[in-house]
C-alpha cells in the first residue's frame, strides 16, 4: 500500500506525519527543532515542489510512505489520488491522508513566513513552536493511519 | 487506456471535448444538449468523472482542479509511476481554453440555490465561443493518442 500524507506545502505537517509513521522521530516526547530540521524536506521545499509526491520511506509492514503539498485543495486531493488509483484498478492501494486539520495557526504563520515569504530566521522559530504544539495531534492521526494500513495489509494476507 | 481530461472543471469544456472526440456531438452544430453538462456536483469532490469510451476501449474521464491544473497533472503522472503504470495505461491531457477560469467561477455559482440554470446557460455560451478551439483540441488529442 502507498500512504500519502498531504498538507498545504508538503513541507511541515505532512513531512512530520510521514516521519512519525516511519518512526524517524521519537514518539514519547516532543522533538527539538534540530531533530525536525534533520528530516528530509522539512521546511526545505520550494514552489516547484507543489504537487510532487515525495518518497519518505517504507514502514515495517512494507507500506511505502510519501508526502505531498497540494495547496488549498483539501480533501479533494485525497479523492483525486484514490480516484486515479480506482480507475487504474488499484482501489485500496492508495491511502491519502490530509494532515491540515491537525495544523494550528502558529504552524500556518511560521510556514508561510519561512517558505512563502522566505523569512526563514523569522518563520522557523514560530513554526517550531507550532509544530511542537501540534505534535501529539499529528501523532494521533498517524497512529490511526498506521492502524488502518496495518489492517489493510493483514486483510490482504488473509486473502 | 484511461484518458484524464484535466481542466478547471470536468463537466464543461472537458465533457464537450470528450463527447466531440467520441462523435457524440455533431462538430458543425454548436447546440449542445448534453445530459451532464454543467453538473458541477459530479466533480465537486475531486474524483474523475467518467465521460465515455471509444471503440478501442479507451475510457475518458473529466477532472476539474480549478486553478491547479499543472499541479494536479504532476501529481497524477507521478502517482501513475508509483503504482507501476505508464503512459500506455493512463494519459493526462490538460484542456486549456480561453475563459476557463470563468467556467470554474460559473461552476461555483451554479451551486448556489436558484443559480444552476443561469450558470449552466452562461457556461454554454462561453463554450460556444470556444467551439473552434475545442475542435482543434480534439484533433490534437487524436494525434496524442495515435503516438501512444
Describe the model.
The complex is a heterodimer of chains A (159) and B (148). Chain A has five helices and four strands. Chain A has helices spanning 13-21, 33-37, 75-87, 105-116, 120-158, and strands at residues 2-7, 54-58, 64-69, 94-98. In chain A, strand 2 and strand 3 form a beta hairpin. In chain A, 49% of the residues lie in helices and 14% in strands. Chain A has a four-stranded mixed β-sheet with strand order 2-3-1-4, sandwiched between helices. The two termini of chain A are 15 Å apart. Chain B is globular, with a radius of gyration of 15 Å. Chain B has five helices and four strands. Chain B is 43% helix and 15% strand. The interface between A and B is medium-sized, with 27 and 27 residues.
Task: Please specify the SSE layout and strand pairing.
The complex is a heterodimer of chains A (159) and B (148).
Chain A: E1 2-7, H1 13-21, H2 33-37, E2 54-58, E3 64-69, H3 75-87, E4 94-98, H4 105-116, H5 120-158
Helix pairs in contact in A: 1-5, 4-5
Chain B: E1 2-7, H1 13-21, E2 49-53, E3 59-64, H2 69-82, E4 90-94, H3 100-109, H4 116-129, H5 131-147
Parallel strand pairs in B: 1-3, 1-4
Antiparallel strand pairs in B: 2-3
Mean pLDDT reading of chain B? 89
Q: Structural class, from helix and strand content of chain B?
A: alpha/beta
Order of helices and strands of chain B: EHEEHEHHH
Helix proportion of chain A: 40-55%
Strand element count of chain B:
4
**What proportion of the residues of chain B is helical, as a percent range?**
40-55%
In terms of per-residue confidence, which ranges of chain A show pLDDT below 50 for 5 or more consecutive residues? Answer: none
Total helical elements of chain B: 5
> Tell me, what's the shape of chain A?
globular
Query: What proportion of the residues of chain B form beta strands (DSSP E)?
Result: 5-15%
> Using CB atoms under 8 Å apart, which protein chain pair has the greatest interface?
A-B, 27 and 27 residues
Sheet with the most strands of chain A? 4 strands, mixed
Distance between the termini of chain B: 10 Å
| Widest β-sheet, arrangement of strands of chain B | 2-3-1-4
**In terms of per-residue confidence, which ranges of chain B show pLDDT below 50 for 5 or more consecutive residues?**
none
Shape of chain B: globular
Biggest sheet of chain A, strands in spatial order?
2-3-1-4
Strand tally of chain A is 4
Amino acid at each position: 500500500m502507498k500512504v500519502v500524507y498531504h498538507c498545504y506545502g508538503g513541507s511541515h505537517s505532512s513531512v512530520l506525519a510521514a516521519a512519525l509513521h516511519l518512526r524517524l522521530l521519537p514518539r514519547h516526547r516532543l522533538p527539538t527543532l534540530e531533530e525536525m530540521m534533520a528530516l528530509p524536506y522539512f521546511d526545505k521545499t520550494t514552489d516547484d515542489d507543489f504537487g510532487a509526491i515525495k518518497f519518505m520511506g517504507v514502514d515495517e509492514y512494507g507500506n511505502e510512505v510519501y508526502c505531498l503539498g497540494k495547496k488549498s485543495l483539501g480533501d479533494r486531493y485525497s479523492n483525486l489520488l484514490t480516484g486515479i488509483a480506482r480507475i487504474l484498478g488499484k482501489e485500496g492501494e492508495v491511502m491519502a491522508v490530509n494532515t491540515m486539520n491537525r495544523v494550528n495557526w502558529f504552524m500556518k504563520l511560521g510556514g508561510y513566513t519561512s517558505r512563502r515569504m522566505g523569512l526563514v530566521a523569522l518563520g522557523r522559530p514560530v513554526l517550531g513552536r507550532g509544530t511542537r504544539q501540534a505534535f501529539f495531534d499529528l501523532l494521533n492521526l498517524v497512529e490511526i493511519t498506521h492502524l488502518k494500513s496495518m489492517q489493510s495489509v493483514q486483510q490482504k494476507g488473509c486473502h | 487506456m484511461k484518458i484524464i481530461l484535466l481542466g478547471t472543471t470536468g463537466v464543461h469544456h472537458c465533457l464537450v471535448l470528450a463527447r466531440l472526440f467520441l462523435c457524440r456531438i455533431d462538430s458543425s452544430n454548436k447546440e449542445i444538449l448534453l445530459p451532464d453538462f454543467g453538473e458541477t456536483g459530479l466533480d465537486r469532490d475531486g474524483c474523475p468523472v467518467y465521460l465515455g469510451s471509444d471503440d478501442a476501449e479507451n475510457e475518458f474521464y473529466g477532472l476539474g482542479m480549478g486553478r491547479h491544473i499543472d499541479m494536479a497533472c504532476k501529481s497524477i503522472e507521478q502517482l501513475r509511476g508509483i503504482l507501476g503504470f505508464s503512459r500506455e495505461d493512463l494519459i493526462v491531457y490538460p484542456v486549456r481554453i480561453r475563459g476557463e477560469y470563468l467556467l470554474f467561477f460559473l461552476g461555483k455559482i451554479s451551486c448556489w440555490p436558484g443559480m444552476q440554470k443561469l450558470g449552466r446557460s452562461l457556461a454554454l455560451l462561453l463554450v460556444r465561443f470556444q467551439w473552434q478551439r475545442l475542435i482543434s483540441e480534439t484533433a490534437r488529442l487524436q494525434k496524442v493518442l495515435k503516438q501512444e
